[in-house]
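Key idea: predict the complex, not the pieces.
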Amino acid sequence: MSFERTLNEQEISLTLNGERVRAWAPSRMHAADFLRQRLGRTGTHVGCEQGVCGMCTVMVDGQAVKSCLMLAAQLDGAEVCTVESLAEENGNLNALQQAFKKHHGLQCGFCTPGFLMLATSLAARGEAMSREQIRDEVSGVLCRCTGYEGIVRAVEEYLSVQQAEGSRFRQAEGSRHAEGAQQAMEAQS
Amino acid sequence: MKAADFLYHRAGSVAEAVTLLDEYAGEARLLAGGQSLMPMLNMRLWRLGALIDVNQVPGLDGIEVEGQGDLEATRVGALTRYASLERSPLAASRLPLLVEMVRHIGDRQVRNRGTLGGSLVQGDPTAEMPLACLVLDARVRVESGRGGREIAMGEFYHGSYAAALEFDEMVTEIRFPRHPQHFAFSELTRRHGDFCVLSVAVTGECDSDGRWHDVRIGLGGVNDMPVLAEAASARLAGTRLADDDIREAAALTQEAIDPPSDMRATAEYRAHLVPVHVRRALQQLCSKNRAADRR
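Result:
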């Protein structure tokens, strides 16, 4: 006989910031509330709860999404990254966070987790972007303090550094492959 | 706000989803991208008995081409997300108007989640996807426990936010005929990513002697659902889209509209804007064609 829970709740297993976690949540609970209230990750902020402000932006399976527009139950089996995943283990800010600090990309800080996660997902795409494209890509997070200029500059700097590192990484990968192929040929001969 | 309570089901197949829809007899709704449905639930504009999550149903996303020449068709799965359409080389070559219009939807996060089928079923009169599918003469494939059927986009709505679906039916695929040779899109929004004040999508074919035929003019945000301005299209058949043709056709678009007044614009303002934007879109259509000729 299978065990049935009488409450209208869902069991959710997910990978949160690289760590396997399991929790229950009411069916109607949205993912942002789930992250904050059930998993204690309060870095994800809740603003409008209707998909307009972008405060609750997190990455689900590598894509930036508004977590108030997903159900907690939809995170079952997913890989989720929140702003808590960014800083280094010793507490130092990562390159993106440092760029926000350097360019005054925040004042009150309420929108910052949303921008940071959106920018992280943009960097993962590995595409070069003009300032105009960046403005378009980050338009789904609202900031009432900065006027966006510092945010756009910070994201621009971070993306250009990531892109350069990405291409160095790809070149290194390429040369490793070439070495491997050469070794394989030598082994054959 | 938080959504009112509902039961949650994760469907593993189309058959399971439509069985659940049938069992709830209109009290359930399918959850696809959730970019319109979830805000409505959170704002308690809607209370549902159950949500049936179809995001895990295999085979509902993707873009496929079939047939050749005039019989060529492009099939897009209902669960295909906007971001997939934006980045698909196949969509870019087969459905360029659809892809151009996708870029006007919401913002990055919305386009990462939202789906083509979801937008059609939502039936927002200002939305880009219903207008694109209407102008491109798409047909919508729906399934239910009683079998499947296809609905032409021209017959897909009863009214605003009211798709012509029975409660046990589920959209699975959108089928596009061969894409028109030329197209143009014009939209007015108050703010970036906002619901539009109005939108205009035009398509057409141009003969080697410069005469146009099969010109279609679609209008969004100026009626309960996207509409085709048929009298205006008829006025353009066989013309060279000269300034007089365009001006007269643009004036005829008034016959097709019944614009609403809301916080974004009054009905009078929308009625004024329609011919202006139709004229611009037709001029763009014409100049794109000339640019293509020079290449």
